[in-house]
Amino acid sequence: xxxxxxxxFFLLPLLLGSCQKEEIPAPGQVDAELASYLEDFIxxxxxxxxxxxxxxxxxxxxxxxxxGAVTGQCLTYSDGRREIKVxxxxxxxxxxxxxxxxxxxxxxxxLLDREHLDTQRADGTCLSMMHSGQGRCRNTYGASTRTRYxxxxxxxx
Length: 157
Ligand SMILES: [Zn+2]
Known about the structure:
The chain is 38% helix and 11% strand. By secondary structure, it is an alpha+beta fold. Residues 105, 109, 116 line the site of zinc ion.
């Protein structure tokens, strides 16, 4: 049981690493297979003059076993740290654009602080890749729509 203040965790990661290693990974840990998605996300944001809302250094991204139909989660902890969990079973069978959609959507929550947006366009497709997946809009994230969705994702307002 680790009872040290969270601030120490940031100041002395090496000393406290063994204390929390089993339950909570050190901040900024990203699964190797997911790291390129984070890199792409940051590059796409920079190309649109995006200024980070949340520091990526306090974000963990890793695979986990998620229950039911949940494919990804963005969690915020009391110390401000954030964590994205990606469903291992989803990932094993997902197409390339579906993988990118999922990670970018969760990064939209965890790094851009965006909420869900289920607005439909006139043709019934989703206005935003931040749709909940439970609204009525149709997700068409793919090669021909990627730029439009990323423009919407990173637009400052
Ligand atoms: Zn979401």
